[in-house]
Specification:
single chain, 250 residues, Alpha-Beta Plaits, two-stranded antiparallel ribbon, 7 strands
C-alpha cells in the first residue's frame, strides 16, 4: 500500500514538473511574441512620425520658397544709400506722387509725406536706413497704385512702424498703413484688386465702409422716347483700411 502510494506520488510529481515546464515555455513564448508586437508597433509609430516630419519639412520648404517671392527687393543703387541720398529719393517720390495725383484728379491729404516714414533730422545706422528704404519703397508702390484711378479723394495716408519678427514664416512686419478714401464702389473694387495682386505681401487687416448718403443711393427716373431710363446715383463711399506690410528674409 505504501509502495503504491509512493509510486502515485512520484507520478504526480513528475506530471506536475512536466506541466510546469510546459507552462513556463508557453509563458516565455508569449513574452517573446509580446516583445515582437511591441517592437513592431514602435517601428510602425516611428515610421509614421518620420513620414509626418518629412511632410512637415517639405511643406515648410515650399512655403519658405513661396514667401520669398514677396521679398522687398530694392534697386541695387538703393542698397547702400546714405541718409542724404535716402532723403533726396524720398522727396523725389513725394513729388512724383503729387504730380501723378494732380493729373488723375486725385486729392491727396495736406500735407502729404508718403506716410511720414522718413528718418529726417536724425542719424541712423546703415541697417536702419536699409529698413527705412524698404518701407519707403513699399509705401511708394501703394501710393502710386492708388493714383492709378481718377476722381476721388485720399483723406488719410498714415504709416506707423510696428516691427515684429515672425519666426514661423521667416518674416518680419515693417508696420501698418492707415488709408482713408472717399470713392465710388467700382473704382474701389479696382484698387482693392490691385492691392490683392501686389508684388509685395500686404495684409488687409480690416476695412470699414460708410456710405455718405444715409438714405441709400439716389435714383433718377428720366423719360425719353416713351421709355424710362433709371440712373443710379454715384454715391461716394468713405472707406478706411488698415494694411500691414511684411518682408521675408533672404
Amino acid at each position: 500500500m505504501n509502495t503504491v502510494a509512493l509510486l502515485l506520488a512520484i507520478g504526480w510529481s513528475i506530471k506536475t514538473v512536466v506541466d510546469y515546464s510546459k507552462a513556463e515555455k508557453n509563458y516565455e513564448i508569449l513574452l517573446k511574441k509580446e516583445e515582437k508586437v511591441k517592437k513592431s508597433l514602435s517601428r510602425s509609430r516611428l515610421d509614421e512620425l518620420k513620414r509626418a516630419h518629412e511632410e512637415d519639412v517639405l511643406i515648410e520648404n515650399f512655403l519658405s520658397q513661396w514667401f520669398k517671392n514677396y521679398q522687398i527687393i530694392l534697386p541695387r543703387e538703393r542698397l547702400f544709400e546714405s541718409q542724404e541720398q535716402f532723403e533726396d529719393q524720398w522727396q523725389r517720390d513725394i513729388i512724383a506722387i503729387q504730380e501723378k495725383a494732380k493729373k488723375r484728379f486725385v486729392t491727396l491729404p495736406v500735407p502729404f509725406y508718403l506716410g511720414n516714414s522718413q528718418p529726417q533730422g536724425a542719424t541712423h545706422s546703415p541697417e536702419e536706413l536699409l529698413q527705412h528704404s524698404k518701407e519707403e519703397f513699399h509705401l511708394f508702390w501703394i501710393a502710386d497704385h492708388l493714383c492709378e484711378y481718377p476722381n476721388y479723394q485720399i483723406e488719410e495716408f498714415t504709416y506707423k512702424k510696428d516691427f515684429k519678427r515672425l519666426e514661423f514664416i521667416n518674416a518680419e512686419t515693417l508696420g501698418s498703413l492707415i488709408i482713408v478714401i472717399r470713392i465710388n464702389e467700382s473704382t474701389f473694387q479696382k484698387i482693392l484688386n490691385g492691392i490683392l495682386a501686389s508684388p509685395y505681401y500686404l495684409i488687409i487687416e480690416n476695412i470699414t465702409i460708410e456710405n455718405n448718403n444715409k438714405i441709400g443711393p439716389q435714383h433718377l427716373l428720366e423719360e425719353k422716347n416713351d421709355s424710362i431710363k433709371k440712373i443710379l446715383g454715384g454715391d461716394k463711399l468713405k472707406i478706411s483700411m488698415k494694411i500691414t506690410l511684411l518682408d521675408f528674409s533672404t
